[in-house]
Amino acid sequence: MLVESIVFALVGLVTGGTALLARPAYFRAARALVLGTALAAALVGGVVAHFSVDGRQPAVSVAAAAVASGVLTSLLARPDLAAGRAPAHRHHPHRPGAHRAARRHRAA
């Protein structure tokens, strides 16, 4: 179990590092938060998978660690805040007094 735990930790660090290198603009959170989330998710996912399959299939445990790490790391991604992307709001930004001007035009 010790060797598997080390492999789970490495999988988590690789997943977090790859996410930060591939899409750095998507992760506005601190780098340590992204790496810590990936690491913790890989460890927890790997341990749960290890006990689910009774430790007989370590490849399944490592794959589960990678999936758990990828899924929880993707929750931190914010593509809407990435550089060069406009927010996808339907409404115009609020301007003070805009509702009064609209009423004035309708009354005329």
TrEMBL record:
It comes from the Bacteria. Residues 87-108 have a biased composition (Basic residues). Keywords: Membrane, Transmembrane, Transmembrane helix. Residues 83-108 are annotated as: Disordered. The chain crosses the membrane at residues 6-26, 33-53, 59-77. This is Uncharacterized protein. It comes from Kitasatospora xanthocidica.
